[in-house]
Design a protein that fits this description.
alpha/beta, six-stranded mixed β-sheet, 12 strands
Length: about 300
Amino acid sequence: MRARYRIPLSLGAAGAAAVAYASLEARSFRLRQAAVPVLPRGMRPLRILHLSDIHMVSGQRKKQRWLRELARLRPDAVINTGDNLSDPDAVPEVLDALEPLLGLPGAYVFGSNDYYAPRLRNPARYLLERASGRHGLNGNRPATGVPRNPWWLLRDAFDAAGWANLTNTRGRLKLPSADIALTGLDDPHIKRDRYAEVAGGPEDGADLSLAVVHAPYLRVLDAFTADGYPLILAGHTHGGQLCLPFYGALVTNCDLDTDRVKGLSTHEAGGHRAYLHVSAGCGANRYTPFRFACPPEATLLTLTPRR
C-alpha cells in the first residue's frame, strides 16, 4: 500500500521545493552588463543604467536597498522603462529606493502597472494568449473596474528631479560629454502608444538618438527601426519570469519572440537594423512573486563607438 503513494508524494515534494526556490530567486538581484556599439567614432563610452519592472510592494526592503546601491555604479544616465508599482501604497518606497539615482540625468516611460493595480490572474492565461496571439488590450476585451495606481505622484517626482518624461514625446539628455536625443512611447500593452506623434526618426545635431518604450511589441520595434534609431530600450517581459532550464522562456507577454525575451539582440525593419535591449526587470506582480531560472536584474549598458 505504501508504494502506491510514493510517486504522488515525490511529485508534491518536488513541486514544493520548486516553489520555495522560485520565491528565493525572486529576491536574488543581479546586475547584467552589456556593450553596445552605437556611438559616433571618437566619442568616449557612455554608461546607461537600464531599470525596469520594479513592481514595488510595500515592505520589500531588500529590493529597496539593492536599488539604492546601484548609485555606486555612477552611470552617466538612467533610463526607467516602467512598471514601477505593484501596490498603490508603494510610491514612497519607490521614490526612496530611487532617490540616489534621481540626482543623475534620466528619462522614463510608464507601463500598465504604473497606471493600474494588479489583479489575481491564472498564469496559464499567458500560455493561452501566446497561442492565440492576443496580449493585454491587443485583441482582448478592455478590463473594467480595475483600481488605479497613483501614477501621477511618480510622474511629479520624476519630473521634479529633472528626468525626461517620454510619454509619446521626445526629450533630451545633455550630458557633459554627449547630447542624447530620446523618443518615447506610452505602453503598447494597453494600446496607449501614439507613434504618429513622435515619428520622424533621429534628431539632427544629437550625438545619439535612443528609442524608449515599456512593452516591446513588434509594431513599435518596426516603427522605431524603420525610422533609423540605432538602439531601443524596453522591459515588460520579465525575461519570461518562469523559465525552463536549458530551454528558456515560455512566454513574453507580447508578440516578441522568446529568443529575444531579455538581454541584447537586434531587430530589422524597413532596411534598417537596430539594437534592442529588453530588461528582464527586477520585480514581479505581487500575486506571482516568483522567478525560476530568470533572476531579477538591472542592466548597465556601456555604449561604445561604432566599429
